[in-house]
Design a protein that fits this description.
The protein is of the alpha/beta class. It has 15 helices and 16 strands. The strands form three sheets. It has a six-stranded parallel sheet, sandwiched between helices. It has a six-stranded mixed sheet with strand order 11-12-16-13-14-15, with helices on both faces. The protein has a four-stranded parallel sheet with strand order 2-1-3-4.
Length: 422
Amino acid sequence: MSIFLNKKILIYGSGKSGLSTLKFLKNKCNVFLYDDFKKNLKKSICYKFIEKYHFDFIIISPGIDINNCKLSNFLKKNLKKIYTDLDVFYSFYKNDCISITGTNGKSTTCQLLYEILSKHKYDVKLVGNIGKPILSSNNIKTKTIFVVEASSYQLEYSQIFQSRYAAILNISPDHLERHKTVKKYVKAKLKILNSNSKNSLGFINKRDLLTIKELKKSKIKRKIFKVNTQSVNNIQQKIENEYFLNEANKENLSFIMAISKKLKLKKKIIFETLKRFKGLKYRQQIIYKKSLLTIINDSKSTSFSSSVSILKKKLNIYWLLGGIPKKGDKFNLHKKYYSNIKAFIYGDNKKFFNNKLRGKIQYSNFDNLSDALKRILMIIKKENFIKKTIIFSPSAASFDSFKNFEDRGNYFNNLIKKYFNG
């Protein structure tokens, strides 16, 4: 029986996660909804009365930072009552889950696993940080498998969620404006490996020193496999898909193969799926390719670490970057690549990016993305016989000028259509 059944529950946050939790629990519990900014919501509760209510549980949305919200003091007094939608799901269902986290590559790896399992005729659902809350799923059967993309924000306050298969693809400093330290960020990620079952398997990157270091200090019991991310060259030759040529997608592919092996999936079906995979929108997505010019939309990039792999694999790169930089972000690209790149920085945080690239990569500053792109197009008109690549990989969050990375990616696509006549 679920620990949440017939209890008095506060749901904090009215985004996709909060509303799906409300809908799921409304006939099972006595639920109340609160949001810092939205008023007059169904089942909402007034800020003034929250501390007077005795709640058995608080289900917190991933976007809520308990150190920076209206209910901060209340939440800190009730830390032991805080759970997430992942916990709610786990308390009601015991379906097999394949959960993926990491700083970069989560969405791509989850999408690939979903497509491979679908081709094997499994009843599989793709949920979590990739866009569909786990509690919004319908028609769940005993054999339904869930592929779950889990962010550090989702895992941070999770208390009971467990997954039969769990993977940490990689960890580099990220979201420090919320987690404050790298150690706390890694600790949040490691929660995905929590398990009481002997049959649970975990997968980590053999070369990821941050993960390995913190894992040694933890009390995690599940069996852990260290994935060699340098072992997929033969596979790349078989699938002949350009998408998997850069380091980041080689890493994703390594985990796909390691997990597929434990699931005893058929290689023929795996390879057929990989051959046809075109990637997700705004993730190193080739949006224009003609004669000597390639244009790549990598709007999903929100840190230097997510941009580095693509900067290593192309010729004569014109790199567009800008936005809200991540706290503590470092530009770790080997100097042998510097001369191949010209950077075009846009937006209000030019000083940050100038400081990171100064003495390494030639750069120019612009007020906005459109002006930066215009300048690149003027330059490449003079380079008729040289192979070149325009890479839009912002290495920063999008919220200075856009709703999200999708909105930013769509804006860039429209700019390209404008200049290249669709």
